[in-house]
Amino acid sequence: MHLAIAGNIGSGKTTLTTLLAKHYRYTPHFEQVDDNPYLNDFYKDMTRWSFNLQIYFLRSRFAQLIEMKKKGKPIIQDRTIYEDANIFAPNLQAMGLMTSRDFENYLSLFELMEEFVTPPDLMVYLRASVPTLVAQIQKRGREYEEAIRLDYLNRLNERYEAWISTYTKGELLIIDVDNNNFHEDKEDLGNIITSIDGKLNNLFS
To answer: Taking the CB of residue 68, how many other CB atoms lie within 10 A of it?
Structure first.
């Protein structure tokens, strides 16, 4: 069983991954943030470091998927390889922060890797407005995220909505984070778990 949590920066992916992993006793796989050698530089100079950052994420997520496949245990994943290719990289290219040459190189590498990737059984998408994202980002206080622009978050949100509206690789569950405080409210978390259980039952019925 492979559950994946998708969503914009600050939507609560890591928190929900942690909570669900504890509930279902699945192995959590988190996005590599703290040891990412490009994040600080990227937020200071996106044009210079966009390609380096996306290649790093692509490699690390692909390696993560290979590791998960070898172990064969139920897992829950914080962000997916699909988000990099469908949202972050094309957004950088559209904003003029990644050259078309670099983007095409990145995309061809992703398409090659995708042949060896199995989609998650269930994708949980955390939908959040920009004000909610900003509040969450400020609350966790990561220094390198202070430079994130509102227009950048808004563009990412638009791409997330476009991507998720056509997602057909597996079961999908959408959670409205603006109206669900699963971080602190056990009842809200319970509602998410109930919805996930319903989706998982569909997989085995």
So the answer is: 17
Q: How many domains does the chain have?
A: 1
Q: In the chain, at which residue ranges do the beta strands (DSSP E only) sit?
A: 2-7, 27-29, 75-78, 122-127, 171-176
Q: Is 45 a residue of the active site?
A: no
- CA dist 149 and 59 (Å) reads 26
Q: Can you state the percent helix, strand and coil of the chain, rounding each to 5?
A: 60, 10, 25
Q: Domain with 150 in it: what CATH number? A: 3.40.50.300
Round to whole Å and give the CA distance between 156 and 170.
22
pLDDT of 67-91, one tens digit each? 888 888 899 999 999 999 999 999 9
pLDDT, tens digit, for every residue of 121-166? 999 999 999 999 999 888 877 766 776 778 889 999 999 999 999 9
Q: Answer for the pair 12, 31: CB distance below 8 angstroms, yes or no.
A: no
**Candidates 35, 41, 45, 78; catalytic one:** 78
Cβ-based neighbours of 34, under 8 Å, separated by 6 or more: none
Domain span at residue 139 reads: 2-204
Q: What is this structure's pTM?
A: 0.90
